[in-house]
Amino acid sequence: MKQYSTDFKEQALKLSDEIGLKKASEQLGVNYGTLSGWRKIRKKKNGENLVQDTSPLTEREKQLLKENQELKEANEILKDALGFFAKDRKK
Questions:
Q1: How many whole angstroms separate alpha carbon 1 and alpha carbon 89?
Q2: At what angle do helices 21-28 and 32-44 cross, to 10 degrees?
Q3: What is the mean pLDDT, run by run of 10 residues, along the chain of 91 residues?
Q4: What is the distance between the alpha carbons of residues 15 and 66, in angstroms, rounded to a whole number?
Q5: Residue 68: Cβ within 10 Å count
Q6: What does the alpha-carbon distance between residue 78 and residue 84 come to, in Å, rounded to a whole number?
Q7: Which of 8, 53, 71, 90 is least surrounded by CB atoms within 10 angstroms?
Q8: SS3 90
């Protein structure tokens, strides 16, 4: 059974709040049921941080979080461009 750091779990939960459970589990390579379980634990603890594992992020986890941030930034740029071109077409 793979162990995830607390930081990774918290970031994964934030991502799942933003884009949904299914997309987050796919992007991070975390089993859907695992991520769902973390959400249930968080809900039971009323949103407190998960304190199950205090190990630092692995290189793979750091890489995934960095890649995820880069993709979010690229999506924002694309949304802005789409809005610009859509507004231009309406004229």
A1: 53
A2: 120
A3: 85 91 91 91 70 69 89 88 78 59
A4: 13
A5: 17
A6: 10
A7: 90
A8: helix
